[in-house]
Amino acid sequence: MTEPRIYVVEASKDYWLATIPAVMGCNASGKTRDAAIANVRRAFRAYLELLDARGVSVEHWKDLDPERFSVAESPAAGPFFPEDAVELQEHDVRDFLHVFEAQQAALMALTSSLTQEELERQPDKETWSVREALEHMMNTQASLLSRLERWPTDPFNTLQAIHRIVYQRFTVMEPKDEKGTWTVRGRQWSVRRVMRRILEHEWEHYGHVKEIIDALGRSPKA
Question: What is the pTM of this model?
Answer without folding.
Answer: 0.85
